[in-house]
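Below is a filled-in request sheet from our internal design queue. Each sheet records the structural input a requester submitted and the sequence that came back. We keep these sheets so that new team members can see what a complete request looks like end to end.

REQUESTER: design group, bay 2
PRIORITY: normal
MODE: inverse folding
CHAIN LENGTH: 68
BACKBONE (tokenized):
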């Protein structure tokens, strides 16, 4: 779990106007989001009961697509 300490700016009515994070905190959030995206993609693949293929074959297919 990441630990962040955002700086929150509010207007005179107490409504949040902006949130400021350090670059380190922002990068931590981006890394967490990328990991979450990977987890979701994995979960979707499992839910779709996708047919598994060997890693080498997958790489060959990706390389073929890239050269087209």
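RETURNED SEQUENCE:
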């Amino acid at each position: 779990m990441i630990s962040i300490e955002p700086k929150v700016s509010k207007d005179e009515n107490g409504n949040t106007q902006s949130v400021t994070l350090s670059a380190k905190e922002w990068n931590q959030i981006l890394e967490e989001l990328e990991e979450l995206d990977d987890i979701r993609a994995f979960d979707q693949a499992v839910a779709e009961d996708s047919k598994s293929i060997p890693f080498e074959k997958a790489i060959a297919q990706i390389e073929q697509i890239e050269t087209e």
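SHEET NOTES:
- The chain has a mean pLDDT of 90.
- The helical segments are 23-47, 55-67.
FILED BY: M.R.
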